[in-house]
């Protein structure tokens, strides 16, 4: 299956680097001029060829860029997204090979995606003039491996996001920054692939395939779909099929924007429903160590421990389909806003619910199953939120027994959560008496937790 960008009005350029059409833009009219680059029909990721660069470049002068091409001269832009496959042959003499961008130090700068110290960077202007900064994925690149890269620059939110997929390890590495000022300035410089206009040493030595530019911000699961070659089908179907599961999270975010999560009206989103056969394990980290306790027939009640120390949990989700994988990526990035919002995690067999959040210091890791590359897995650290966020104090009081309501309904779970908050003081006395007898726990289930 191949990506289809034809229905995306925000896709402004698509370079597939096919044999006989090396310089063709398959979406717009941003035709490139070639200076020495060739095609490789034996080692590629999409279509039937890719571009092979070695002290070569292809470029489109600014005057020939389509109107609306991000960083075309004449105006500034709010958003830019770039995705591509790349494979390094060498790091070059200066280890600064540029994949693409519009940049000429001292003459005009906008943005560039490039190597530096064996890592991938995106560098951008921070004042629309001469000042600049960069964000990098802290993963050491290797030669001879195909990587898929997604980069977004959001000049409205001042957010930079990078997603790097290592096809050899089946691992995903990300970087995100919301503290740097981002400008996407229009410059008269040419748009170049394979080098930076500044210095000859900035040539890229390797292969690039399916380089795509957008004038909007791609979501993380859209970048994933492009990497998998199923854009836009997977991203749109995933969103529509899971809309009922995520309906509560929209109200959660809107209510929290007017009053923070300490408001009693805060409604935490529910853990999304996943496919039958997905394996989910939740393991508590006690005192920095993983400790497992058998849970008998699955209906043992684990009472909350009222303590000043929050619980930490290791969450492992295995044997996911691609749709499950995209669902969890959207849940993390959109519904929980990367750990900003607490959500409900319901363990169906035990009929219990914890209110937890993703650890903002340790983003979840996604990857493929070692022996089953068509299946996916996720590992994450979850933190209990303070009970004070829900009307109580200390930790643990946010737990409640949902046996009187349907654990599959986010609305009923939310109402149960509200009632639990109002009775946290009575819950605390029960929790303190049982804290000594329940030192740790672990649970696992299949399907939606």
What does this structure look like?
By secondary structure, this protein is an alpha+beta fold. Helices cover 15% and strands 32% of the residues. The chain has six helices and 24 strands. The strands form three sheets. Strands 16, 17, 18, 19, 20, 21, 22, 23 and 24 form a nine-stranded antiparallel sheet that branches. Strands 1, 3, 4, 6, 11, 12, 13 and 15 form an eight-stranded antiparallel sheet that branches. The chain starts with 10 loop residues before the first strand and ends with a strand. 45% of the residues are buried. The model is unreliable at 234-266, 287-308, 347-351 and 387-449 (pLDDT under 50).
Query: With helices defined by DSSP (H or I, 4 residues minimum), what is the helix count?
Result: 6
- Tell me about the largest β-sheet: 9 strands, antiparallel
Unreliable runs? 234-266, 287-308, 347-351, 387-449
Query: Which overall shape is indicated by the principal axes computed on the Cα atoms?
Result: globular
- SS class: alpha+beta
Q: What's the number of extended β-strand segments?
A: 24
Share of helix, binned: 10-25%
> For the CA atoms, what is the radius of gyration?
25 Å
**Overall mean pLDDT score?**
73
């Amino acid at each position: 299956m191949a990506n289809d960008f034809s229905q995306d009005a925000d896709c402004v350029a698509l370079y597939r680097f096919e044999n006989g059409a090396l310089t063709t833009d398959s979406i717009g009219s941003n035709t490139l001029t070639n200076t020495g680059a060739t095609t490789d029909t034996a080692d590629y990721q999409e279509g039937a060829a890719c571009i092979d660069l070695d002290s070569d470049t292809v470029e489109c002068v600014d005057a020939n860029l389509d109107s609306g091409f991000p960083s075309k001269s004449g105006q500034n832009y709010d958003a830019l997204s770039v995705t591509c496959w790349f494979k390094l042959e060498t790091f070059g003499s200066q280890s600064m090979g540029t994949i693409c961008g519009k940049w000429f130090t001292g003459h005009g700068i906008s943005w560039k995606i490039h190597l530096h110290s064996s890592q991938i960077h995106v560098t951008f202007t921070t004042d629309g003039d001469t000042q600049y900064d960069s964000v990098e994925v802290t993963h050491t690149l290797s030669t001879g491996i195909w990587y898929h890269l997604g980069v977004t620059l959001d000049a409205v939110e001042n957010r930079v996001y990078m997603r790097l997929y290592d096809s050899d390890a089946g691992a995903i590495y990300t970087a995100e920054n919301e503290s740097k000022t981002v400008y996407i300035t229009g410059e008269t410089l040419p748009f170049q692939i394979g080098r930076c206009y500044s210095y000859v040493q900035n040539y890229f030595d390797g292969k690039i395939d399916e380089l795509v530019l957008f004038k909007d911000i791609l979501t993380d699961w859209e970048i994933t779909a492009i990497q998998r070659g199923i854009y836009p089908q997977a991203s749109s179907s995933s969103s529509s099929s899971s809309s009922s599961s995520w309906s509560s999270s929209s109200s959660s975010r809107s209510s929290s924007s007017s009053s923070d999560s300490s408001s009693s009206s805060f409604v935490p989103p529910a853990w999304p429903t996943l496919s039958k056969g997905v394996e989910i394990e939740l393991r508590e980290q006690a005192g920095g160590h993983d400790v497992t306790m058998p849970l008998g027939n699955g209906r043992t009640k684990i009472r909350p421990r009222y303590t000043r120390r929050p619980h930490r949990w290791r969450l492992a989700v295995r044997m996911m389909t691609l749709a499950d994988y995209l669902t969890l990526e959207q849940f993390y990035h959109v519904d929980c806003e990367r750990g900003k919002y607490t959500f409900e995690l319901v363990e169906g067999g035990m009929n219990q619910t914890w209110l937890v959040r993703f650890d903002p210091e340790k983003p979840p890791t996604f990857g493929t199953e070692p022996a089953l590359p068509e299946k996916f897995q996720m590992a994450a650290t979850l933190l209990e939120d303070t009970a004070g966020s829900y009307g109580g104090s200390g930790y643990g009081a946010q737990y409640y027994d949902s046996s009187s309501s349907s654990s599959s309904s986010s609305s009923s779970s939310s109402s149960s959560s509200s009632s639990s908050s109002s009775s946290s003081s009575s819950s605390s006395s029960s929790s303190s008496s049982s804290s000594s007898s329940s030192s740790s726990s672990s649970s696992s289930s299949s399907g939606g937790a």
